[in-house]
Amino acid sequence: MATLSLKGINKSFGSVDVIRDLSLDVNNGEFIVFVGPSGCGKSTLLRMIAGLETLTDGAISIGDKRVDHLPPANRGIAMVFQSYALYPHKDVRGNLGFALKHAGIEKQEIDKRVNNASEILGLSEMMERKPRELSGGQRQRVAIGRAIVREPDVFLFDEPLSNLDAALRVHMRIEILKLHQRLRNTMVYVTHDQIEAMTLADRIVVLRDGRVEQVGTPLELYKKPVNTFVAAFIGSPAMNFLQANVQDSSVNLEGESICTLNAKDGPVQLGVRPEHLVVSDNGPFKGSVSVFEHLGGESFVHLALADEQSLVAKLDGEYIFNPGDECSLAIKAEHCHVFDSAGRNITE
Amino acid sequence: MAINAMRSGLLAVGMCLTGTAAAQTVISIESWRAEDQAIWDDLILPVFEAQNPDIDVQFKPTTATEYNAALNARLAGGTAGDIITCRPFDNALAMYEAGSLAEIGSIAGLSNFSDVAKAAWSTDSGDAKFCVPMASVIHGFMYNKDAFAELEIEVPKTESDFYAVLDKIKEDGTYIPMAMGTKDQWEAATMGYTNVGPSYWAGEEGRLALISGDAKLTDDVYVQVFEQMAKWTSYLGNGYQAQGYTDSQNLFTLGRAAIYPTGSWEITGFQENADFELGAFAPPRKDADSKCYISDHTDIGIGMNAATENKEAVMKFLEWTTSAEFAEILTNAAPGFFSLSTHDIKVENALAQEFVAMRGECEPTIRLAHQILSRGEPALGNQLWTLTANVINGSQTPEDAAKEAQANLDGWFKP
Amino acid sequence: MLITQRLSSAGIHAVLIAYSLLALFPLALIVINSFKSKKAIFRDPTGLPLGDNFSSKGYDSVLNNSDFPLYFGNSLTVTCVSLVLILLLGAMAAHALSEYRFPGDSLIGLYLILGIMVPIRLGTVALLQLIVDLGLANTLTALILVYTAQGLPIAIFIFTEFLRSVSKEIKDSARIDGLSEYRIFFEVVIPLVRPVIATVAVFSMIPIWNDLWFPLILSPGEETRTVTLGVQQFIGQYTVNWGAVLAALSVAILPVLVMYIIFSKQLIRGITAGAVKG
Amino acid sequence: MANTERPTHRRPIRWYILVFLAPATLIYTIFAIYPILESLRLSLFQANENGATFEGLANYARLIQEPYWAEQFWNAFKNNVLLFLMHMLIQNPIALALAALLSVPTLKGAAVYRTILFLPTLLSVVVVGFIWQLILSPLWGVTPAFMNFLGVGSFFKPWLGLESSALVTVTLISIWQYVGIPLMLFYAALLNVPEETIEAARIDGLNGWWIFWKVKLPLILPSLGLVGILTYIGNFTASFDLIYSIQGGLAGPDYSTDVMGTFLFRTFFGFQAQLGDVYMGATVASALFFIILIGVALYLFGVQRRLQRYES
């Protein structure tokens, strides 16, 4: 149980800067998630925390201890990998106890911790099996168990669910959440999947090109994304961006005012989340339906607007449209996001 | 430094392991005569070691085909044996000139050898001698006495007799007239060309004329030999093109062929394997009036590795090889390999006696290409292999073959 | 299900059996003739070694020759020690090449597999000189060193290709578990490469076991002869004891055959595991 | 934060990389590369009265200009090229066909066939050479009897002894012995073709034959390339043993089976009457080295790149 602090982290491979001057403080017991598109440096950052990559500059501390010069095993961390990274030649019990045995911990203590972990994860039935005899979900559980037995200060997860199929992913996500609630450890989790980030995180760190775009709780990121990048990344289906104009403190789309904004006249980007759109006879977003997807409880309408822009709306399941139908939608002014030409959020 | 230290350390260990090293000098003989292992181990070496208890001689042969390559590599690396069995003439000369063979002219027993014998292992001027002559082999023909009796044929004396005999055997059809193949190439050249050739080029006369430049391989007498070879084709077995030397041996010893052009070196092997009585005859003379010639080839010599550390023991052994005792053991233990010494040795093997008897009737000479003519590239010796095989296979005419041989010789050889 | 539509299963078996016979027939001839006298071999090469044809002389001269157990021992020692060295050193180098980035890594990688292309035999003279300078002439050590050098490039090539295809995370995981780089190699990488060990072993073993050249040049001494070199004593200048040669070589096939059968299953798995892909 | 507080982030020297690499690199360099480089060096010298003198590329000029050398060199080179082409056109298609049959999933006894087909590869060339000479010999009746039995006895020829057929015959023996290696590589590659791809093709209406040509073959192209380059290298390096043991050092009849390996052997160590010449031998060895290098470079930079596009 400890805090994690990153100060002025820099990392370059040759002339390529992967992480640029990154600082972050993680609270004790906090579940923090790094998200970003591939290549944003999130995995490198995690591997630096683990000690698998060296820093070019900066400092990492866990608790009060400066760790960036320590070997991985002495940092008080445990890590769960995307490919599970189980030792193929050892059975489940051997995999779970390996690190402890190597650290010279007494056999009794090892057994205790291994049994404890296997109970938490429901692995007790398969302790003598080799990894190749396990399903993907079971392997992932063993990988997590291997982290648990080490009783680390900080858990590190490197895209642990991306090798699983959709149903299992949801299931394991919940297991990890439960685990966190039970252990209350500091956890750092890397993913490119925003749903995992939203559901798991106490705080999310959005990374792009080695820089932090925004840090905040899932709701903060959802409600107040600092820029179009974060806005597009968080939320599903993704936010619609439409070209609009500011005229006389009003944001206008095709001459219709959507919301007010105290800014000088000129083009802006209007951000509209699909779930905030509602059907309204005189709504400002008018167009014809190009695609209609019905999911039972809800439906998605893809609308071709008059000025050749397009828009997705998430509607209640009771609406039914056919391609070619005319449709008009409206949004509450407080749900509008407005971004300047550089992508910065300038919503009031 | 380090390497030397290591080496002496290992030497020391080696000394300890051999135990009796202090008392005995161990010397080893390099040879290509793998089949003579038992003869040397059981008959020859014990006699010498009994007289020289402080010397242990080991016979370490390499397969004949790899002998030159392996020996040269070992000489270059410094791991060759103390005593080296020498091939005659240019091959040994090259080794002497490269500093691998020591000068051994001081051996008193060399007086027991004729000048002809010594010439095979001396420099051209005759000043330096580098191997003790050991044995010669005599070319000739072996025949199946039973078959000859069955077909009522006499041993041929002249060329026309020879072909008459062959025709008769061919006509009868029970036997393949002659066992020889061209696959191994050297067989055709050695058993055919070199065997009967001297009768045409008049032995030494023709051989020396080539070296002096007075004659060319395109002269009639040499071309005639190729013509003989072309004539042989029809008397060989089916598929002789793919018949190797071992095949020929087996064809003959299994009694399927009546005549086998060969040499005295086959005696031991054939007497072991053949169920019929063997006889030998000399290469036929051109006609009744002309002389008969045999190739009595100085084949094996024995010399000293210049880099040996046991010079004294080696010299002692070489001295012994000039003795009548050695000559006698060798001649009778390896019948067909005749001592080159002038000692009067009684040959016990009957078939070997038939070969020795040829010496009385015929003029001796050595193989055509061995002296000087194989010193450059391409070596005439190897040329003759390929060309003879080509002529017998019909892929080259005798004239062409002679022309090519001479042209290649002209490429490097200045008489 | 490839060509089943064209050729029935029986057809496939017919083709494979036909080719198997082609592969086995000469082998059978070798074994049959090793039990015959030289004369019988040539009188009736395809005849079974029965009645008059039978002769165990070949085996007698091999097995009663007190030196043959020694030759076998030498061959086994040289082959096994070389194999272990090739596998161990090859895997170590391949691990370094596939796991770590360091200056010149790809150059060293290229350098180490260059030897696949060039037979060391080309350097025989210099090699012998070197062996003599090191005081290793006529030792099995000389052969082992040369065979190891000869076998390393292909081993490194196969191991590197394979290790590159294996997830790196498992090694990272071991690092987090606190293993040193050395223990990672021995406790994680060695078990990982097990599927391709058979592939490398089979490819390296055959040329070592059958080699005649280097024993002839580097270690021809009586004490260090290998089987193939020992067999040469039956091959004379003019007379060849074929019965003994065939007997010796029939016996000499056995160790490689046994090793092959042991490795056979792993061999395919190893190649399939992506070890020898383009 | 003050700079002085920061420990340096320079990575400590990673000795373990050295420990892993050094043993293999050392043994390989000392016992493989050094001797070969020494050979390359010797190729620049020529023997004369006082040892050897540096002659630059003179030996190479002799090799391709002086008729005696050039004739042998180009003949051996030509034969090597023929050998390579025949292996590519005969050995590898046979291996591919057998591998295709072996990889039929419903086939029973595949493991037995696999072992049998690989057996010849385990043999030493001494015994392979002997047995095939015995089988093909016109004297001892194995092949003639077999052909008579089939009623084609009149077609028998002493193939190993005829200039027109010796090289082909030796090649076929070599194929008999070594077909196991490409067979294994193809077999493994075919096993790796995903079942789904084949099923997709079947749904597209392709039958077994076309699935092989249109789907499997393109997918195993990379191993086809690998087999090609291994064949190329083996053709220059391994062909020596077999030809030497069957046809002898002169590679008869009339040099019709002479390859770079036998040519090198004769030149380097001498053969019977011919005296060995280390300097010309080294030159031939080096020429051989460069020929192999050029082939491998072409493969690496041309063929392999194109082939690997199919991988993804």
Q: What is the chain-wise order of helices and strands of chain D? A: HEEHHHHHHHHHHHHEEH
Biggest β-sheet of chain D: count, sense, barrel? 2 strands, antiparallel
Structural class of chain D, by secondary structure, is: mainly alpha
Approximate helicity band of chain B: 40-55%
Number of strands of chain B: 10
Number of domains of chain D: 1
| Overall number of domains of chain B | 2
Class based on secondary structure composition and strand pairing of chain B? alpha/beta
Strand arrangement, major sheet of chain D: 1-2
- Counted by DSSP, the helix tally of chain B is 17
**Proportion in β-strands of chain B:** 15-25%
Largest interface: C-D, 90 and 94 residues
Query: Rg of chain D from C-alpha positions?
Result: 25 Å
The CATH architecture of the largest domain in chain B is 3-Layer(aba) Sandwich
User: Tell me, what is the CATH class of the largest domain in chain B?
Assistant: Alpha Beta
In CATH, what is the homologous superfamily of the largest domain in chain B?
Periplasmic binding protein-like II
Cα separation of the termini of chain D: 49 Å
Shape of chain B: globular
CATH architecture of chain D: Orthogonal Bundle
Poorly predicted runs of chain D are: 1-6
Kindly identify the CATH topology of the largest domain in chain B: D-Maltodextrin-Binding Protein, domain 2
Description:
In chain A, 25% of the residues lie in helices and 35% in strands. Chain A contains eight helices and 20 strands. Chain A has helices spanning 42-50, 92-102, 107-121, 136-149, 166-183, 194-200, 218-223, 228-233; strands spanning 4-13, 16-26, 31-35, 57-62, 65-66, 77-80, 154-158, 186-191, 203-208, 211-216, 240-247, 250-253, 256-260, 266-272, 277-279, 285-294, 298-305, 310-316, 326-331, 337-339. In chain A, α2 (92-102) packs across α3, α2 (92-102) packs parallel to α4 (136-149) and α3 packs across α4. The model of chain A has no long low-confidence stretch (mean pLDDT 90). Chain B is α/β, with parallel strands linked by helices. In chain B, strands 1, 2, 3, 4, 5, 6, 7, 8, 9 and 10 form a ten-stranded mixed β-sheet that branches. In chain B, β1 (25-31), α2 (37-51) and β2 form a beta-alpha-beta unit. Chain B is globular and about 70 Å long. Chain B starts with a helix and ends in a 5-residue tail after the last helix. Chain C has 278 residues and is mostly helical. The relative contact order of chain C is 0.14. Chain C has helices at 9-34, 38-43, 57-63, 67-99, 105-113, 124-133, 140-165, 169-176, 181-210, 213-218, 227-231, 242-275. Chain C folds into two domains: 1-55, no CATH class; 65-275, MetI-like (MetI-like fold, Orthogonal Bundle). Chain C is built from twelve helices and no strands. Chain C is globular and about 75 Å long. By secondary structure, chain D is mainly α. Helices cover 69% and strands 4% of the residues of chain D. A two-stranded antiparallel ribbon of chain D has the order 1-2. A two-stranded antiparallel sheet of chain D has the order 3-4. Chain D starts with 14 loop residues before the first helix and ends with a helix. Chain B binds chain C through residues 3, 6-7, 9-11, 32-37, 58, 60-64, 66, 70, 73-74, 76-79, 246-247, 249-250, 253-254, 265-266, 268-269, 273, and chain C through 38-39, 42-43, 124-125, 128-129, 131-135, 137-138, 216-217, 220, 222, 232-240, 242.
